[in-house]
Structure formats: structure tokens, C-alpha cells
Design brief:
A hairpin with a 6-residue loop joins strand 1 (30-33) and strand 2 (40-43). The chain is built from 2 helices and 3 strands. It is an alpha+beta fold and 73 residues long. It has a 3-stranded antiparallel sheet with strand order 2-1-3.
């Protein structure tokens, strides 16, 4: 009987425990590095994807109230 209870509890907790490492939330606001002045300026996800920017050319705005530091980059 204890084995059955253990198996049932384990099956209910596994998705939570094993999936927690992939907890992600997409940032709402981004900043892109201006190629001419080399300063950071606001930009959109569409601009990042459309210009095929590398990771060192854009960053999330960490001061945003809804920013969430992801565990998985």
C-alpha cells in the first residue's frame, strides 16, 4: 500500500520538480546597441529578429517591473 501511495505522489510531483529548471518568461522590453553611437536604445523583438542581432547587440531591460530573471538563457 505504501508503495502505491509513493508512486502516486511521485508522479504528481515530477512535472513540477523536473520542469522548474525550464521556467522562462520572455522580457517585455529590450535595448539594442546603436551601431553608430555604440549606445543602448529601446528596440522591439521584431527589430531584433528582423536585423538578426547577436546576443551581445541586445539585452532585456532589467529595470522593468515585469522583468523576470530566467534560470535558463
Amino acid at each position: 500500500m505504501l508503495v502505491i501511495i509513493f508512486i502516486l505522489l511521485e508522479n504528481q510531483l515530477d512535472p513540477l520538480l523536473l520542469g522548474i529548471g525550464f521556467l522562462e518568461r520572455e522580457p517585455r522590453r529590450f535595448e539594442c546597441r546603436d551601431q553608430t553611437s555604440n549606445e543602448w536604445r529601446p528596440c522591439s523583438k521584431e527589430e531584433i529578429c528582423g536585423r538578426h542581432l547577436s546576443k551581445d547587440q541586445y539585452k532585456p531591460v532589467k529595470d522593468d517591473d515585469e522583468y523576470f530573471d530566467n534560470w535558463v538563457e
